[in-house]
Write a structure and sequence with these properties.
The protein is of the alpha+beta class and 603 residues long. 59% of the residues lie in helices and 9% in strands. Helix 10 (251-281) packs antiparallel against helix 12 (320-351). Residues 62-86 have a biased composition (Basic and acidic residues).
Length: 603
């Protein structure tokens, strides 16, 4: 009865949905759903004005896009221009303040500085490097060791101030004056060099390196950690190394010193870490830590040397921290010292590369002579040639070094060494100067041992010789025991052979010339001369004319034979002997004894 009453009081179920057309019903439901979503979007739009609109944005045309980009670019350029003007105004104010100081230093430093050749700049870099090393070594030491006591703080303050003044002077007076190359031109305008320096990363590092974080002393006390930014001046150290190597005759000496400095600094850092670790564990609490006796730095540095180099004999660590620190030390020492030893090997290898090449060449030649049973006399002369050439030149072949240089550099060196000598040669007077320069580039250096014959009488003349160092003698007689004349450095002989024809033996040597002691000669071959004369026809005519005159002055070949036959006086020189010259040998009595006097030009 109760159940039937409950059924009567409950609400009747909703009538079933009548679907007349399924497609139309689906479309109506979809429209109603979209309308509901759109209504929700408009509600959000009313609440948040930046909400996106449901409508699709109209497409942007190409013209509108270009205009928008141009407007954005123009706006950006205006902002950059304003920023640049503001920056220039700030720097102008700084320049106005610094102008009296810069003007005061102009007579000393000049308008600008050549950083590659100005020795004053390199000397200044050495001072900046000294200040950088002071900061590098003492900031780390003062940071770890208890060196900030009341009595020594004024001393540190004075040294810190001096180092900071050096940093500031370098940035204001020196770096801003450095010349630089732009598109191949050397910029020497100080206004431009100053702007260039201020646009570089180095300037930003220099500014950061002198930021006065030292003022935090007033709040936190005198702590060297506030000077850690001074280490950003490291570029100056590497620049000083490069400049010093470029002016040193033996740059490897500085490289060795620098590598040793790296080693000492690594030991310094390890000593600092060891003291910090000892302080963390407790000074003198275990046998492994620093005991607290004696000089703290020296004791810790001694430990660093024994630990990093793995000498041994150290106290055994016991705690986990001590064991970990010691193992890290050992691994670091192996890595660091293997790197430094490799670097030292490279430095020494580069320094002795030329000597190693000399030794290998000499050893190879000696082995060849021994295997082929060359006489000992010849072997000794070959060894002597190798030894003297190395001692005199520092290399076996100068051309190997010069060939690596640009043509301009080779020309400058050749002109500086030999052009003045070439200009004194009668045969080449009146020739084109550029032709003489081209001839200088074709010269070859040859070393002759004492007693070596440079030319022999009757040989075909194909070269001319310039004496670079040493001396040669023109000799004759049955056993070449008669010395007619001695030619020394700067003299020239054999130049006529370059222009003579081989017809009828016209270019044969007329005398014997041998080295007196060790002689270093420059040789110019006939083929090289003819290759050069192709480009200088006027000079070729001048040489041909002078060659004919010299040949006429030389006299007939029969007269030369008569000289030897009569054992008369034979003089060698640029001109035939005058009566005054002959009287210098003994006056009338001497002249009466001479049957034939004839002038021979060595060719």
């Amino acid at each position: 009865m109760l159940f039937s009453v409950f059924r009567q009081e409950s609400a009747p179920p909703p009538p079933a949905h009548i679907v007349i057309n399924a497609y139309a019903d689906e479309q109506l439901r979809s429209i109603a759903k979209r309308m509901k979503e759109r209504l929700n979007l408009y509600k959000e739009k009313v609440v948040d004005q930046y909400a996106s609109s449901p409508e699709i944005s109209p497409p942007v045309t190409e013209e509108e896009r270009i205009k928008k980009e141009e407007a954005d670019q123009k706006k950006k350029e205006e902002q950059e221009k304003k920023k640049k003007e503001l920056k220039d105004a700030g720097w102008h104010s700084v320049d106005m303040v610094l102008k009296p100081v810069e003007t005061l230093m102009d007579p000393v430093l000049g308008n600008t500085i050549d950083p590659f050749t100005d020795r004053r700049y390199i000397a200044w870099l050495s001072l900046v490097t000294l200040a950088f090393n002071y900061n590098t070594w003492f900031i780390t030491a003062r940071l770890c060791f208890p060196y900030h006591t009341e009595g020594i703080i004024p001393f540190w303050f004075v040294l810190d101030t001096l180092a900071d003044l050096i940093y500031l002077t370098d940035s204001i007076l020196f770096q801003a004056r450095k010349q630089y190359v732009k598109a191949g031109d050397i910029i020497k305008d100080r206004v431009v060099t100053k702007k260039n320096y201020r646009s570089t990363d180095r300037f930003m590092l220099d500014v950061m390196s002198v930021m006065p974080f030292d003022l935090l002393y007033l709040r936190f006390g005198f702590k060297s950690i506030f000077r850690i930014n001074r280490l950003l001046k490291v570029d100056t150290f590497f620049e000083f190394s490069d400049r010093l190597e470029s002016i040193m005759a033996k740059a490897y000496i500085w490289r060795v010193i620098r590598t040793i400095g790296y080693l000492l600094f690594m030991l310094h850092l390890n000593a600092c870490f060891y003291y910090v670790a000892s302080d963390y564990q407790g000074i003198g609490k275990t046998k492994w830590v620093y005991s607290g006796l004696g000089s703290a730095y020296l004791r810790c540095y001694y430990y660093a040397v024994r630990s990093l180099i793995n000498i041994g004999g150290l106290n055994e660590p016991h705690t986990v921290f001590e064991i970990t620190f010691q193992m890290t030390n050992f691994f670091t020492g192996v890595f660091v010292f293997s790197s430094l030893i490799g670097q030292m090997r490279d430095v020494i290898g580069a320094a002795t590369a030329a000597q190693t090449y000399f030794r290998s060449s000499m050893d190879g030649t000696v082995d060849y002579m021994v295997n082929n049973h060359i006489p000992s006399l010849v072997q000794n002369r070959v060894r002597t040639w190798y030894t003297y050439t190395w001692d005199a030149q520092g290399m076996l072949d100068e051309s190997e070094l010069l060939d690596k240089m640009p043509l301009v550099m080779r020309t400058a060196i050749a002109v500086d060494i030999n052009l003045s000598t070439f200009q004194k040669i009668d045969l080449f007077k009146g020739c084109d100067q550029q032709m003489l320069v081209d001839m200088l580039l074709r010269l070859k250096s040859i070393v002759y041992l004492p007693g070596d014959f440079v030319v022999k009488k009757g040989d075909i003349g194909k070269e001319m010789y310039i004496i670079k160092s040493g001396a040669v003698q023109v000799v004759g007689g049955p056993d070449n025991s008669i010395v007619f004349v001695t030619l020394k450095a700067g003299c020239v002989f054999g130049e006529i052979s370059l222009l003579q024809s081989s017809k009828d033996g016209g270019n044969r040597r007329t005398a014997n010339v041998k080295a007196y002691g060790f002689a270093n000669l420059f040789v110019l071959e006939k083929k090289d001369l003819f290759d050069i004369l192709v480009h200088y026809p006027e000079s070729q005519k001048v040489l041909a004319r002078k060659g004919r005159k010299l040949m006429k002055a030389k006299g007939p070949a029969a007269a030369k034979a008569e000289v030897e036959k009569q054992k008369g006086l034979v003089l060698f020189g640029p001109k035939p002997p005058t009566p005054k010259m002959l009287r210098a040998f003994g006056g009338k009595n001497f002249l009466a004894k001479i049957k034939v006097v004839f002038y021979i030009h060595v060719q």
